[in-house]
Amino acid sequence: MAAVAATTLALTGCSSGGDDEPVEKPTGPVTIKVWAWYPEFQGVVDLFNKTHSDIKIEWTNAGTGQDQYTKLQTALKAGKGAPDVAMLELQEIPTFQLTKHLVDLGKYGANDVKGDYVDWAWKQVSSGEQVYAIPVDAGPMAMMYRDDIFKKYNLTVPTTWDEYKAQAEKLKAASGGKSFITDFGANDGGFLSGLFWQAGAQPYTYDLANPSNIGVNLNSAEAKKVITYWEGLVNGGLADTTAFHTTDFYNGLGSEKYATYIAAGWGPGYIQANAAASSGKWKVAPLPQWAAGENKQGDWGGSSFAVTDQAKYPDIAAKVAMEIFGAKNTEAWKIGIDKAFLFPTATPILESADFKNKEYDFFGGQKVNEVFVPAYNAIGPFSWSPFNSYNFNQLTTGLNQAIEKKSSWTASLDAAQENVKTYATQQGFKVQ
């Protein structure tokens, strides 16, 4: 888990925002500086520059995730050095908007493309008519499974979490304990949030239109149901606890150590890159449900393009944010889908025959988007806090201590609840 950024979330002393300041009109091509870490992004930048004579994108990979955010927060606070457009994960938008460093794209026509996105995705980047970013990709969750392992041990693809546990027990007995049903990576707050999301938990109640108030409910009954379930799998020797995104984790996916991977829509790309030997052995099935017949879904990850208040030409920067991976930019999305395995948020791309019917060699020719697209469409609303790094740190630290038998699993949520409430109060929020 990345360290919590050292910036203070004071509710006062906010910047005025670049969109309120009049600027002279450009007399020639405008260079827009973009920070992003999307895979295969150079090709997307080259395509944009080739098709636009009045705008040139200058792209920098300033680091992944928290590495970029720390640099971005420093530049925004200093009043110089920030890009015009920045890639932000959806859960980070409230943090950057709290200090008024994101331009309201609604002033530059962003609401005209609202219909290109499903309701839950658009609400992740907006509040009423104010739009703080343009969605790019998302992480609808599903169950990837090793078809060869399922056939070897005569396992049945589960549709509920109860069935999932039953198959885990069957696998443990049949393999002599050599194979786990999956890996529970307690080091990834996004994964944990996705599981909570599916179960109906709402850890936060927060609206950018009322930024001084926040509801905190990290230890809800729904969240504890999820944690208790996974505690049973881990303590029963049915699920492993290797940290996600490590060499050991990918080796487990590439061998017969893990029979399934509870993954996001972008997850297959990472397996393809890090466990190539397992190509053709995987298939994708819907996420198991808590009750038979339900269709509850969660999201793990996803990102957007936001315009910072240091943009000299916010209207042009907004155009870049809306168009570079826009709903009509099929060529850019061909690169994003075929080479980077991004899962698009733009409905016209999602619903296109090319995307829905795309066959993936890595999955034995399966049309996996027939699983991921319905999952994306069924995701419900979910709110993030404006101090997400601290929140994730509390969740992952507490759960790893529980795994090491230093505390109970549900007690880790109780501790996170109290710590986050205290932190929020210290930062000037009114906690509800």
Automatic annotation (TrEMBL):
Chain segments annotated as coiled-coil in the UniProt record: none
Highest taxon, organism lineage: Bacteria
A Pfam family hit: SBP_bac_1
The name this protein goes by in its record: Sugar ABC transporter substrate-binding protein
